[in-house]
Amino acid sequence: MSYEAASSAPGAEGAASVPSPPAPVPSAQEQGPPAGAGSLADELGQWLQERRRELHADPELSWQEVRTTEKLVGWLRDAGLEPEMLPDTTGLYVDIGSGPLVAGFRGDIDALPVTELTGLPYASRHDGVAHSCGHDIHTTVMLGLAVGLHRRQQAAAALGHEPQGRIRVIFQPAEETMPGGAQEVIRQGLLSSLPRVFALHCDPRLELGHVGTRIGAITSAADVVKVEVAGHGGHTSRPHLTEDVVSALGHLATTVPAVLSRRIDVRSVVSLVWGHIQAGSAHNAIPSVGQLTGTMRVLDADAWRTAGDMVTEVIEQVAAPFGVDVSVEHVRGVPPVINAERETMLIEAASREVLGEDSVILAEQSMGGEDFAWMTNEIPGAMFRLGTKTPGGEDFDLHRGDYAPDERAIEAG
């Protein structure tokens, strides 16, 4: 994977002028939150709401989160913290407290190449780029965690109590790429002294005030499979004189997923779905080349490690009777996120204490990919689903231009 580093590292001199927490700022929302649920009326909550709207209006794609990094550095420094930027790229981290590291928390900061359709007054200012996966919420929750913990530790120190243990908050770039920015975080050693790591993801179908947890695989591995088929083309009136690329592609598209379901343990839950098929341009000409691309998703980590070789073997076997030449490219994406039992139970206990006994639900296993999985491959960790649906409100989906999470989820997170 290649990427361009930021042209200049953001620092205190280059950062935009930003308001300092915890001074309250007026709400920019034309309508207040629905009555009855938790409010962002406190100082820090109001400040976080405004910071989230700044992030939402100024989204940046993977590995391009320069302004986002600058904003976060400025806000954290103004709060009295000392963030460190990742060398040679975007993203940052900050440690709160003193003594040994006791836990890490990761929030992803990149946006999607999607056009925003919400019509909100703080909608994206950039055509074709939007926070349609909730990463602005993730980032703001982590910002609030860092600032809130720092304020509590300052208050404790003023009373002569010095809590021991450091918390590390990681603002990770480039989650929306494959294999993702988590590997850069690992490469730079940010997990090497951490005993555990946590993350969250917005869930647009889960109501506000609830979190979804699951021990074991909560997301799927996700890879890309690219197939190219080549042969002698010719006239459609004489297919017997050709190596029929179109027929070969058709059989591959329908047969390979079915064969995989009989070659890999069904308990591993393997899904191969094609998203693109292309060959030829004339109705009466059999082309000489065609392509088929799709994604392969696997819930079981062990099955994922062998599935690439298996899918290549099956593709070659299915294509063989057509006499075509086949090349297969299997692009490793991300493994499944495997939630550790102890870390999951810690999330559940905290959720019940803060949000109530009925706040925790069993999360569905998602077939989506998530590069936080590389972190849980390294150290114990867990990811939870954060409810962002307004009770009784509209259903949304992630990666849609109209996704509008309920901002009160920031406080819950």
UniProtKB/TrEMBL annotation:
Cite the residue spans of the region called Disordered. Answer: 1-40
Name of this chain's protein: Amidohydrolase
GO terms (molecular function) for this protein are: hydrolase activity; metal ion binding
InterPro entries in the record: Amidohydrolase, Bact_exopeptidase_dim_dom, Peptidase_M20, Peptidase_M20_dimer
Q: How is the cofactor bound?
A: The Mn(2+) ion enhances activity.
Q: Which residues form the Peptidase M20 dimerisation domain?
A: 225-320
Keywords in alphabetical order, please. Answer: Manganese, Metal-binding
> Which cofactors is this protein said to need?
Mn(2+)
**What domain of life is recorded for the organism?**
Bacteria
Q: Name one Pfam family in it.
A: M20_dimer
User: Is Metal-binding set as a keyword in this record?
Assistant: yes
